[in-house]
Amino acid sequence: MKLLYCIACQDIIRLRLSETHRYCECGKSWGRYRTGRIAEVGGKGRIIGIHNIQFSKALVPNPDTRFEAWFIQEPAESVRRINSIESSGVMQEQLEYPRMRNLPTEEQAPFAYWMRDQTRPVVEGIRMDEQDFFYPWDYERWKEQGRPTEQIAGDED
Ligand SMILES: [Zn+2]
Q1: Beta sheet of 69-71, edge-to-edge order
Q2: In whole angstroms, what is the distance from residue 118 CA to residue 104 CA?
Q3: Are 125 and 21 a contacting pair, CB within 8 Å?
């Protein structure tokens, strides 16, 4: 079993055999299984290997619940490193959208409130309750207007 660890945000996610990549919480790492054995990883992701048999044994109640896990040293036969998501240009483009969680803390709530009726990008592979992406021009406009909490009338896109 392989997991993806992001050295930027410390998130750990399970890789899936899938057409699309899974992302860590900060979006700087992504990966998937290409086959049942070969992992594909990008960004700041590192692959953790877990000893499958030990893991299964540790899962059931017994005196020894330990199992081995390790970082797979690259290059490795079972890991393919990708620097861009060549299989899906759309996702790569979407990944560049800024996120509200990365704004200064004091700006997050007022900006989110101001943005409540604005169109926002939806990024594939991210849970709906984790979607906090915005278009950079909306943020620029919000700052230019002095960080209001209400939309200025007639200023629609
Ligand atoms: Zn991350």
Answers
A1: 12-14, 2-6, 45-50, 69-71
A2: 20
A3: yes
Average pLDDT of 117-138?
83
Q: What string of DSSP letters covers the chain?
A: -EEEEETTT--EEE--BSSS-EE-TTSSEEEEESSSS-EEEEETEEEEEE-HHHHHHHHSS-S-----EEEPPSSBTTEEEESS-TT-HHHHHHHTS-BGGGS-HHHHHHHHHHGGGS-----TTS-GGG--B--HHHHHHHHHTTS-SSPPTT---
Q: Which of 129, 68, 5 is nearest to 13 (CA)?
A: 5
For 4-51, the pLDDT digits (tens) are 999 999 999 999 988 888 999 999 999 999 887 889 999 999 999 999
12 CA to centre of ligand 1 in angstroms: 8
Segment 105-118, tens digit of pLDDT? 999 999 999 888 88
Write down the pTM of the prediction. Answer: 0.53
CA of 6 to the centre of ligand 1 (A): 5
Q: How far is the CA of 156 from the centre of ligand 1 (A)?
A: 34
Of 14, 15, 12, whose CA–CA distance to 26 is shortest? 12
